[in-house]
Amino acid sequence: MKKVNILQLIASICLLIGSIINLLNLLIEIPFALYVCTGPLLLTSVILFGIVIVKQIKKGKKIMPLMNKEKIMEIIPHRDPFMLIDTIEEMVPGVSVVATKYMSEDEFWFKGHFPDYPVVPGVLMLEMLAQAGAVAMLSLPENKGKIGFFGGVKEAKFRRQVVPGDLLKLEVEIIKIKGPVGVGKALATVNGEKAVSAEISFALK
After folding, report:
1. For residue range 129-178, what is the model confidence (pLDDT) as tens digits?
2. pTM for the whole thing?
3. pLDDT tens digit string along 49-107?
4. Which of 9, 45, 136, 174 has its CA 20 to 30 A from that of 68?
5. Active-site annotation holder among 113, 153, 156, 158
6. In DSSP terms, which residues pair with 188 in a beta bridge?
7. Distance (Å) of CA 51 to CA 7, 33, 48, 75
8. Which residues 6+ apart lie within 8 Å of 66 measured at CB?
9. Would residue 113 show up in a list of annotated catalytic residues for this protein?
10. How many CB atoms are located within 10 Å of the residue 138 CB?
């Protein structure tokens, strides 16, 4: 039996017992101690039903992204066909960011890379990570209107092929900033599996 059903069962029993005691008190005189029990029983049933309702709401609730593509384009200058991130899910400006990119079958790179075996180019995944990092950095008030440029890539490792239908999760943590130059620790995953990891450096202008 599911946990939610158990909560519903306990809440229903508490409500039933409390209601029976109240009904008996109206028909016959019952001991005061027994009558006093109805309050906690009814309160318990209300709390448990509340928990059940909240769980059901959360289960069916669709989590909205922090930023959609339109909001992202207000921060970074990239545009289609080279706007390579779809959403920002989490972000602490200047510190860290979590973004996503869904690989639809009609992405332009799949037509040539490769026609019979479509795979996302590794360099484009690095660009996706860089764009996610750029959103985090350019969200700072002092960086508004600036452009982020690649400075370099270190220790890049490609661990998994990314193909049409995959949802790429892009995580970047800014680990060093000195003036307009910074370094980010980047990780791209699909369903928890590492696809790309690297240390990317950037310069803001």
Report:
1. 999 999 999 999 999 999 999 999 999 999 999 999 999 999 999 999 99
2. 0.71
3. 667 666 665 554 445 689 999 999 999 999 999 999 999 999 999 999 999 999 999 99
4. 174
5. 113
6. 170, 196
7. 8, 28, 5, 40
8. 87, 88, 89, 90, 91
9. yes
10. 21
